[in-house]
Amino acid sequence: MRDFDEWHRLGTHWHAYVEVREQGFPSTRAGRLRRTPDRVLCSPRAVAEWLYRMKRVYLPARPVKLLGSGAGWGVLGDERHLERDLFEDELAASRGDSLYLSFGCEHDRMDLWVEAVTAQDCSEPHREQE
User: Fold this and answer.
1) Is the pTM of this model over 0.85?
2) Per residue in 81-115, pLDDT tens?
3) What's the Cα-to-Cα distance from 5 to each of 1, 20, 34, 64, 80, rounded to whole Å?
4) Mode of pairing for the β-strands spanning 13-21 and 99-104
């Protein structure tokens, strides 16, 4: 059984980065950690809520064909999808995991990177940003 408070004991917090790219390869974790984060998040709930807000603004709701015979259609980026992701993202962060999301926009691609870091990765004292 996983320890969902492990992130706290390890001193984990998260550095969030937003990248927009027209083409090419995404950045690497090492490259991102050398930069100042766009946001510092100090709890799994804060991670999930930040991703939720970003997806509400930037992820276009669109129909997608579901896999499996007779599965039909679903909607990516609708409220039901975002609510499920809110739960799943908080669960992943509570394990001390990093979360990565990449999606197409009208003319480019947006990458959301939420890097789990400990004192080993980050020696800066942080307070969560509002």
Assistant:
1) no
2) 788 889 999 999 998 999 999 887 777 888 999 99
3) 12, 33, 27, 35, 27
4) unpaired
